[in-house]
Amino acid sequence: QVQLVESGGGLVQPGGSLRLSCAASGFTFSNYVMSWYRQAPGKERELVAAITSAGTSFNYAASVEGRFTISRHNAENTVYLQMNKLKPEDTAVYYCKAGHRFGPQLYWGQGTQVTVSS
């Protein structure tokens, strides 16, 4: 059974940091591009960051470039999102997504809430 389980969300003050984790199971993690998306209330889901299957190439939304870092540990089937210098506009539900390198397989996690507020 495929599972993507996000954790690490919560309430943080502006300027603070959080690290999100996404633990994967039920598929060959190292064959998948991993991404983080977010969705704020009333807005469409948007790509935050992505990392290739080998972890050698990255892509970031302009709004988080220089503040967020995506990484993965293939031996532990886990992808991370380190979020620094958080802003109120980063408040959203953050989702983990797995997409096969060459095929149509696509999986989503259930999401974790991040709230940036004083």
Account of the 3D structure:
- It is built from no helices and 11 strands.
- With 118 residues, the protein is mostly beta strands.
- A hairpin with a 6-residue loop joins strand 4 and strand 5.
- The chain is globular.
First CA to last CA: what distance? 40 Å
Helical residue percent band: under 10%
Largest sheet entry: 7 strands, mixed
Shape call: globular
| Percentage of residues in DSSP E strands | over 45%
How large is the count of helical segments? 0
Annotation, overall tally of beta strands = 11
Order of helices and strands: EEEEEEEEEEE
CA gyration radius, whole angstroms: 14 Å
Structural class: mainly beta
Chain-averaged pLDDT = 97
List low-confidence stretches.
Answer: none
Topology (elements, then pairings):
Elements: E1 3-7, E2 10-12, E3 18-25, E4 32-39, E5 46-51, E6 58-60, E7 68-73, E8 78-83, E9 92-100, E10 106-108, E11 112-116
Parallel strand pairs: 2-11
Antiparallel strand pairs: 1-3, 3-8, 4-5, 4-9, 5-6, 7-8, 9-10, 9-11
Descriptive terms for the model:
7-stranded mixed sheet; single chain; globular; 4-stranded antiparallel sheet; 0% helix; mainly beta
Offer a quick outline of the entry.
The chain is mainly β and 118 residues long. The protein is 0% helix and 53% strand. The chain starts with a strand and ends with a strand.
